[in-house]
Design goal:
mainly alpha; Four Helix Bundle (Hemerythrin (Met), subunit A); 5 helices
Length: 162
């Protein structure tokens, strides 16, 4: 079973890959990579906090929920919301699911756009900050060239299209 360091290493490989695939195309895949990076970070937290491995998304939701008084691996409200947002964004990217209010006349309501990628980066950045603060590990800055966004601690905007 993967341990804390294995999950952390995989998350860092995913971040490197995210920087490599950061082109103007395939926003859905970039959002998906952002989610799986976060998933490995969260699994690292769960592995070291409660020695739990290979759990379902539903169980992970229960274990992370800050309102679950019995959980050894619950996270703060913001981190929980950031993780859930990334999960939903990735579901949108992978399965064309929109958890928002549907607009029956819109053909693109289930597609993934730059705004979703920006949101994914912001949420992933927060989870990375959580991991840094809780476990005193660091991450390299990932350079993003395909979109303009407000700079974050772990994502640097080097877009040439201002």
């Amino acid at each position: 079973m993967a341990n804390f360091n294995s999950h952390l290493s995989q998350a860092k490989r995913n971040l490197k890959f995210l920087g490599e695939i950061d082109t103007g195309k395939s926003v859905d895949w970039k959002v998906t990579v952002a989610f799986y990076t976060a998933l490995h970070l969260i699994n690292a937290h769960v592995a070291i906090s409660a020695n739990l491995h290979y759990i379902t998304h539903r169980d992970l939701d229960l274990f992370l929920n800050p309102n679950n008084k019995m959980s050894l691996c619950k996270v703060d409200d913001d981190t929980f919301v950031n993780y859930k947002t990334l999960l939903n964004l990735s579901r949108r990217s992978r399965y064309l699911l929109n958890d928002g209010t549907p607009h029956l006349d819109s053909e693109s309501e289930h597609l993934t756009f730059e705004k979703h990628y920006k949101k994914a980066l912001k949420n992933l950045n927060h989870i990375m900050e959580f991991m840094t603060n809780k476990y005193d590990n660091e991450f390299n800055v990932t350079e993003i060239t395909s979109i303009n966004f407000e700079e974050l601690k772990y994502f640097k905007n080097i877009s040439v299209n201002v």
